């Protein structure tokens, strides 16, 4: 009688309740070896390759690309092959179904550091491993498995070698990855290749017939195709243009109010799914209050980095009124005020909202702030940001004015007690002694949890921020 193994989706880090299938590396009937990549999964914060827990034949797979799998639910079923390598009974795989580190969890020690090769090969781990490992959370491209660390590797699917994150970016940008010229080592399609192809760089694309036969077959076969995979260029079905006229040329009658609107419901996945949960939790727990005012930038000398000035002003306000640079535990009614200032910078993407942490903002000069923000944005765009960088900040900033809007009521996400919103710059007529002047001003909105600080503390915080923003430099 064959020995079967049911593999449950492990906790991929940060205690997230589910993950979305991006791409299977096997199909039912395939034989897979222990620790070979089984599936690429997208969590709210990372793209992760999940290795196989056994060697054997694949009997069942939980779903297709795009399906959401609950943590602890069946991911795959195997028929174990005893003639192939197997993991010893009770050996730690590095994945857990229990709680993982949350906000304020410690960073991996120096002994856990690993080094990856330039061409995306396996990551090597230290030979001396501690007897007991802790789940360090999800890190893009690296997962603990026994005493080794598995890496996100460039896997050849459909004749194209690319990492899962690169494939996901190609799907997002509507790029046929089979037509992208590979510039990476050993013919690997890189993130930069995909972005240049999306920008229309002719050197980044092969000729229409230049794709290899396996690649063309992979895009033609619908076996694993889902909503993640765009239609190949030129073969999308024609969509009739909407019109207010019927085919006879007469005006069409509009639908009465009782008729349901058209469109299909779309299940939230990945980052957007987690964002919905976080916002609902914040709405249920926080008692928000918002103060608004305008920062007068009239005295600024020369061209300055507006976001860097905002960060500096928030640091000054946090040092002036520490009550807003704090965490609040609503259950225990306890408050933790922080000596350091770690600012969560809201980054808007098509996939949803990311809030990476700019660590030790109170120790950075203007150049350090700008370099830190650029690094965080690049990591968010490439989906290479460690999960540890998406939590643990002490206060947050939403610079929504870069797009539109003057004032707002940004959402305070526990355990933080405050968030600063910066609106769109404007030129306003300002009354001064002896007449009027036109000043450049920035609307500022400060939302705070009224359980954790008073209105007076919030007002003094806002004043300190505005005063610093008004300085010439």
Automatic annotation (TrEMBL):
- Known Pfam families for this protein? 2-oxoacid_dh, Biotin_lipoyl, E3_binding
Give the region (Disordered) as residue ranges. 85-139, 244-267
Cellular component, GO, one term: cytoplasm
Q: Which InterPro entries match?
A: 2-oxoacid_DH_actylTfrase, 2-oxoacid_DH_E2_comp, Biotin_lipoyl, CAT-like_dom_sf, E3-bd_dom_sf, PSBD, Single_hybrid_motif
Give an example GO molecular function: lipoic acid binding
Alphabetical list of PROSITE patterns matching this protein: BIOTINYL_LIPOYL (PS50968), PSBD (PS51826)
Residue span, Lipoyl-binding domain: 4-79
Cofactor names from the entry are: (R)-lipoate
Enzyme superclass (EC) = transferase
**Protein EC:** 2.3.1.-
Keywords associated with the record: Acyltransferase, Lipoyl, Pyruvate, Transferase
Q: In what residue span(s) does the Peripheral subunit-binding (PSBD) domain sit?
A: 161-198
Family membership, please give it: Belongs to the 2-oxoacid dehydrogenase family.
Assembly: Forms a 24-polypeptide structural core with octahedral symmetry.
Give the protein name, as stated in the record. Dihydrolipoamide acetyltransferase component of pyruvate dehydrogenase complex
Naturally occurring in which organism (per UniProt): Aerolutibacter ruishenii
